[in-house]
Amino acid sequence: MQHVEGVELDQLRPLTTLLVWTWNTLYQVVVTAGSDVLVQGGPFFSEPTAAHIDGASTGRSLVKPGWIGLGLLMEFHVMGKRLVTSPVVAIATERPSTSMVQ
């Protein structure tokens, strides 16, 4: 497997806000603890929603738990349902002053 750039969620401080662009959507992801997050964006998350990011996948299998990787899909668990995004194209840290968590 080739090296893929990404973010290890449990290495981030609580309330770190990530902007994650996929082919189809921009997500705002606020880390609450490890892989537990508040996510907003796209058709499923119009409001900040508690979720667990299972990790990055190829669509067939989980590549790395608790991780968001460029070129890979994000897999979420939200209210007992599994949601999978289109491939991630960019990840950035948002400045704290504009976070959705107040």
SSE arrangement, N to C: EEEEEEEEEE
Helix content: under 10%
Span between N and C termini? 40 Å
Give start-end ranges of low-pLDDT stretches.
Answer: none
How large is the radius of gyration? Answer: 12 Å
Mean pLDDT: 88
Total domains = 1
Beta-strand residue fraction? over 45%
Q: Kindly report the oligomeric state of this protein.
A: single chain
Shape: globular
Query: How many strand segments?
Result: 10
Give me the number of helical elements: 0
Class computed from helices, strands and strand pairing? mainly beta
The biggest beta sheet reads: 8 strands, antiparallel
Secondary structure layout plus pairing:
Blueprint lengths: L5 E3 L8 E6 L3 E8 L2 E6 L3 E13 L4 E4 L1 E3 L3 E6 L2 E4 L3 E6 L9
Antiparallel strand pairs: 1-7, 2-3, 2-10, 3-4, 4-5, 5-6, 5-8, 8-9
How does this model look, in words?
The chain is mainly beta. The chain has one domain (6-96). It contains no helices and ten strands. Strands 2, 3, 4, 5, 6, 8, 9 and 10 form an eight-stranded antiparallel beta sheet that branches. It has a two-stranded antiparallel sheet with strand order 1-7. It is globular, with a radius of gyration of 12 Å. The model has no long low-confidence stretch (mean pLDDT 88).
